[in-house]
Design brief:
The structure is a single chain. The protein has no helices and eleven strands. By secondary structure, the chain is mainly β. Strands 2, 4, 5, 6, 9, 10 and 11 form a seven-stranded mixed beta sheet that branches. A four-stranded antiparallel beta sheet has the order 1-3-8-7, with no helix packed on it. A hairpin with a 6-residue loop joins strand 4 and strand 5. The termini are far apart.
């Protein structure tokens, strides 16, 4: 079983920093891709940053140079360091992970953590 739990959201002023963490609190899996998505009311969930099992990363253009994704494979955790935050970064941030199981890619989501950036 997989249960992803996010930590680290909150309220911060523009220009500030936050670090999000995501932990699988149940059985240890060798996750394939881990990622962070975000969503604001009325809009689609969008990819913020992703990282493969070999630590290749990709970022949304809007966060390049400000956000850094990393992972600890031994702990099955993924992190998102967010610097130079802007009000438009305000959203619910979701942790994502997938794992291959019997030729099927299974996808898992956390419950989300609110990030609010005040101007």
């Amino acid at each position: 079983q997989v249960q992803l739990v996010e930590f680290g959201g909150g309220l911060v002023q523009a220009g500030g920093s936050l670090r999000l963490s995501c932990e699988n609190t149940r059985t240890i899996f060798s996750f394939n891709t881990m990622a962070w998505y975000r969503q604001v009311p009325g809009k689609q969930r969008e990819l913020v940053a992703g990282i493969t099992s070999s630590s290749n990363t990709n970022y949304a253009d809007s966060v390049k140079g400000r956000f850094t994704i990393s992972r600890d494979n031994a702990k099955n955790m993924v992190y998102l360091q967010m610097n130079s935050l802007k009000p438009e970064d305000t959203a619910i941030y979701y942790c994502y992970a997938d794992v291959w199981s019997r030729a099927e890619l299974r996808k898992y989501w956390g419950q989300g953590t609110q990030v609010t950036v005040s101007s």
